[in-house]
Design goal:
heterodimer; A: about 220 residues; alpha/beta; four-stranded antiparallel beta sheet; 7 helices; about 25% strand; globular; B: Alpha-Beta Plaits; 2 domains; about 75% helix; binds adenosine-5'-triphosphate; binds magnesium ion
Chain lengths: ~220, ~290
């Protein structure tokens, strides 16, 4: 599904954020991307949906090299990759429903389809009764569930989550991880960058560890070390 | 899909307009003022053009014919002058008729007792094709020493008029260009601020896979609306303002050749009305490209 070859990122100031990263992610796999702060997790994820450009190396998604994707086709790439952020990135002046519908509107879904898809996804994340709330009326965990709902509402084959539990309490973090597992079970490849040691150790998934821009460990049933 | 896009643009644009009402109001007002001055200068230069046309039509060279020149020779001279390339028309003025006209014009003077007989010579009045060729024409007229006695024209005035028309044109064009640039800058800045106010939204749009066209759309639409409303305001001011001014001239300076033709005014309103939205589109396009690097 995702193949990363000799990926390097050198910032303008000469800082090497990624050094010769190689990684294969199979279809419908679930991967934890762990490592200390500044290891390059966000940098790597951003590169997968072309929010950032590598200095050298290549990323293939379904065997399609990303460097060959023209700027004008980036939106179509992003429609196949849902992204979840630690800071949610919800529109404050729009309701839960509108926030999720916004993504579909941008993709030219019909109004009837938007209605149907948004109800389905709200049901999946368990927030149907809060569809007319505004983001500031929601708890952190609820906001993150809305953010996940928005990311998967159009059923993308890939979901990237950058520290989705970064600002949540342990119980809520558990809920979010279970939700991500549930989404993974619906045929979605999921990559989660996280610091959350307890969750990684308990969920027994594949764990890829980054340190100073290098992959130092890749275990099928791994631990956070 | 296109229709849903347009609906999206309009909806998003009005959310943006509503969010920063004060800023839009001030930029619309500034653009209205700037487009008013723009239209006003077009009207001024149209009038200067008409004045200089009017004055060139009044510009005549009066050629007095040598005394005792036979009628046939005068006729031949007139025909010769009329054939000259710089001459628009040449008209023979009989000295007796000229004297009658003269006396009619100056009835308050008791000419009959002051002057005995007709002091005026036969003459030919020449209308020039182009005002700035008048010197050249006079030079060639001076060669007709056998038949022409004197050449009377206001060379100085014609020169000044040419210079005035030329400079007023240059100044007018520079002011118009300057105003257009100023309007463009106002729009670029306003749209830049609305883009910054909505940068969060724009980033989210990019992340969920909105095409650049869809992201640009609302901002282009906003720019166009600002330009359009500004132009409408300017047109109202220009329409009523110009009517008022023409009225003043008709009342107090009826001989002044002010352009009161409705089609001229409407062409200027049309120019302002299309310039506004076009500058709006251009300005917001420049602004988005700069602030979003799309
Ligand atoms: N524009 C930039 N210029 C220079 N260095 C940068 C730039 N952006 C990021 N970096 C550096 O790249 C490194 C990797 O950053 P990244 O955000 O990928 O880390 P991370 O693994 O996501 O950390 P965290 O767990 O804290 O989110 C950091 O050391 C950061 O300082
Ligand atoms: Mg990070």
């Amino acid at each position: 599904m995702i193949k990363i070859k000799n990926l390097e990122k050198i910032h303008k100031n000469g800082f090497k954020a990624l050094k010769k990263v190689n990684l294969h992610v199979g279809k419908n796999e679930f991967i934890y991307l762990v490592g200390p702060s500044g290891a390059g997790k966000t940098t790597l994820l951003n590169m997968i949906f072309k929010f950032d450009r590598p200095t050298s190396g290549e990323i293939y998604i379904d065997n399609c090299p990303l460097t060959s994707i023209h700027d004008r086709q980036i939106p179509h790439l992003r429609r196949n990759i849902g992204v979840v952020f630690q800071d949610f990135k919800l529109l404050p002046k729009r309701t839960v429903y509108e926030n999720i519908a916004f993504a579909l509107k941008v993709m030219h879904y019909s109004r009837a389809n938007i209605r149907r898809k948004v109800s389905q996804v709200l049901d999946l994340v368990g927030l149907t009764q809060k569809e007319s709330y505004f983001p500031n009326q929601l708890s952190g965990g609820e906001k993150q569930r809305i953010c996940i709902a928005r990311a998967i509402v159009n059923d993308p084959p890939i979901l990237l989550a950058d520290e989705p539990t970064g600002s949540l309490d342990p119980d809520t973090s558990w809920e979010i991880m279970h939700l991500l597992s549930k989404i993974n079970a619906r045929n979605t490849t999921v990559i989660v960058a996280t610091h959350n040691k307890g969750l990684v150790d308990d969920l027994r998934k594949r764990v890829v560890t980054l340190e100073s821009g290098k992959i130092i460990r890749d275990q099928q049933i791994g631990f956070y070390q | 899909m296109l229709l849903s896009n347009i609906k999206f643009f309009i909806y998003e644009a009005f959310i943006g307009l509503n969010r920063s009402r004060l800023m839009f109001f001030t930029s619309i007002a500034t653009i209205a003022v700037s487009l008013t001055v723009f239209g006003f200068f077009i009207l001024v230069s149209v009038n200067i053009h008409s004045i200089s046309n009017y004055m060139s039509s009044k510009f005549e060279i009066l050629v007095t014919v040598k005394e005792n020149l036979p009628q046939q020779d005068i006729k031949r001279l007139r025909a010769k002058l009329a054939r000259m390339p710089l001459v628009n028309s040449a008209l023979f003025v009989d000295k007796d008729k000229a004297w009658v006209e003269f006396k009619k014009k100056y009835t308050h003077l008791d000419l009959a007792t002051l002057i005995v007989g007709n002091p005026l010579p036969h003459s030919i009045t020449i209308q020039v094709v182009e005002l700035n060729k008048i010197k050249q024409l006079v030079a060639s007229l001076k060669k007709e020493t056998d038949s022409i006695d004197d050449i009377i024209y206001s060379g100085d005035l014609s020169e000044k008029l040419i210079v005035f028309a030329k400079y007023s044109q240059i100044i007018g064009v520079s002011i118009v260009v300057f105003l257009l640039l100023a309007t463009l800058l106002i729009i670029i800045n306003t749209i830049r601020l609305t883009v910054l106010a909505r940068i969060e939204e724009v980033t989210i749009m990019q992340l969920v896979g909105a095409t650049n066209g869809l992201i640009r759309g609302p901002f282009l639409f906003e720019g166009m609306i600002i330009g359009l409303i500004g132009a409408l305001g300017a047109n109202l001011i220009l329409h009523f303002g110009y009517q008022y001014i023409t009225q003043l001239f008709v009342e107090f300076a009826p001989y002044f050749p002010i352009v009161s033709d409705k089609t001229v005014l409407f062409s200027v309103l049309l120019i302002v009305g299309t310039t506004g939205p076009l500058i709006g589109l251009l300005g917001s396009n420049i602004s988005i490209s700069r602030s979003l690097k799309l």
